[in-house]
Amino acid sequence: MKQSGYEVETSREVTRERAVLVGVIGSTTPEWVVEDHLDELRALADTAGADEVGRVTQRRMKLDPATMIGRGKVNDIKRLLKEKDARLTIFDDDLTPAQVRNLEKELPGKVMDRSGLILDIFALRARTREARVQVELAQLEYYYPRLTRMWSHLRGSQGGIGFRGPGETQLEVDRRIVQDRIGKLKKQLEKIARQRDTRRGARRELPTVALIGYTNAGKSTLLNALTGRHDAYVEDRLFATLDPKVRRFEVTPGHPILAIDTVGFIRKLPHHLVASFRSTLEEAREADILCQVIDLSHPLFEDHIKQTDGVLKDMGMEREERLLVFNKIDNLENPQVMRRMQEAYPDALFLSAARGLRVWDLRERLDAELYQGTGRAHVRLHPDDMAALQKRFPLLQLQTKTWKEGAVHTLVSGPKTMLQQALQELSLEVIPKD
Ligand SMILES: Nc1nc2c(ncn2[C@@H]2O[C@H](COP(=O)(O)OP(=O)(O)OP(=O)(O)O)[C@@H](O)[C@H]2O)c(=O)[nH]1
Ligand SMILES: [Mg+2]
Question: N or C: which end of the chain has fewer CB within 10 A?
Fold first, then answer.
């Protein structure tokens, strides 16, 4: 018995890879930032199943376009790989297909970049059908240009009579297969999205908060803490959540709130993935409150805020009424940081989701913003808008309707955030009270 347990343990260890990490120090980024980026890369590698055995950094001035890093550094990596018996090199910066090729000629084993690594993790961890389809699509789109260049590379180096013809045909065939598959996956996604829209339509009547933010910030932990349940998956790994959950909870009896967990963001999220996870974030887009969770104990938390803002902006999801939640206050090395942020963001909340510290404040705040604050607005509605309004926002009440010039003048009232969203989404014309 003991022996078989031991064997299982060994085989798991054996399948882990050993990797050298490579980072480039830019002209404006200080060295410690690059080290922190490499720490994050190490966490990503760990999630993908590789252990860091060493790292190499280089200043940007000395870069060689053919291999990204300079000759001397390539040799350093080669030596390190041999010494540590490793066969994987991971670059923090994106490599072109040609750079990968050149580097793989010099270095033993595989060479990959951060984007490739993230795609790999998503492929490994996606569970639901939708997530799997999205990841496969992102992978095909990422590898497609690399596929074609791989073939032209093969033709170039081994080319000549006999190779060129079949190579060309093979390339065409491969391209078509990949294109067909991409087309099929896109159709599947559309279908899944339609099904989800139907489900969402049914839920939509409840006020909703979406938890968004950098990976490992504690979104899923916070979802559990808010709802008093412990079924959202939490792990000290990047991208623990790829299949977000939606949970219902009540602070005041009779005032249900939906909380949506989301996929975490990360710096340099491969843009194919951004595109394919857009639909997953659609639910968050329509939430009444966007709650941005930040790991205040992380040395780069300010950069995380920036990265998250960037993704939100790319997706057209910037909002004024975003609620900042600084998490992990139990884990601060320097309490000064919290004071500084409290001054910078007087409206933000500071809590510990894992310890349950001040989570109550957030529950109260959400309840207040979503229910207690009742908003009223006089609007001029076209009959079509009126139907849309009642369908999309059944919690809003329409009072004292009067017809004027083919439109209805009415007083709309209901939860403040929901009213705001309705006005914005349907571009309703607000009029002075008549
Ligand atoms: N010290 C401390 N750790 C926390 C706190 N909240 C969450 N964590 C830990 O942070 C890690 C990540 O938590 P998750 O809830 O999985 O984070 P997430 O934002 O959902 O991460 P992804 O799903 O990967 O995007 C886990 O190890 C949690 O236990 C907190 O308040 N204090
Ligand atoms: Mg999570």
Answer: N
The answer on 350 and 212 residing in a single domain is yes
Residue nearest to atom 24 of ligand 1 (CA): 239
**Residues 193, 234 within the same domain:** no
If you measure from the C-alpha of residue 370 to the centroid of ligand 2, how many angstroms do you get, rounded to a whole number? 24
pLDDT band for 330, please (50, 70, 90 cuts).
very high
Which CA distances in Å does 245 have to 281, 283, 355, 357, 359? 12, 11, 21, 23, 19
Print the domain residue range for 423: 373-430
Q: Report the candidate in 234, 14, 302, 266 with the shortest Cα–Cα distance to residue 117.
A: 266
Residue 53 to residue 56: CA distance in whole angstroms: 11
The CATH number for 93's domain is: 3.40.50.11060
Q: What residue owns the CA closest to ligand 1's atom 16?
A: 234
Assess whether 363 and 398 both reside in one domain. no
Please tell me if the CB atom of residue 217 comes closer than 6 angstroms to any atom of ligand 1.
Answer: yes
From 216, 327, 330, give the residue whose CB has the most ligand 1 atoms within 8 Å, as the site to mutate.
216
pTM, two decimal places? 0.76
Q: Does residue 378 share a domain with residue 367?
A: no
Quick one: pLDDT at residue 167? 52
Smallest-distance ligand from the CA of 239: 1
Question: Are 338 and 247 in a shared domain?
Answer: yes
Q: Are residues 224 and 351 in the same domain?
A: yes
Q: Which of 136, 90, 98 is nearest to 116 (CA)?
A: 90
State the distance from the centre of ligand 2 to the C-alpha of 263, rounded, in angstroms: 7
Q: What is the mean pLDDT of residues 28-33?
A: 84
**Number of domains into which the chain is organized:** 4
CATH number for 219: 3.40.50.300
How far apart, in whole angstroms, are the C-alpha atoms of residue 304 and residue 297?
Answer: 12
Predicted local confidence at residue 155, as pLDDT: 45
Q: Report the pLDDT value the prediction gives residue 355, as an integer from 0 to 100.
A: 96
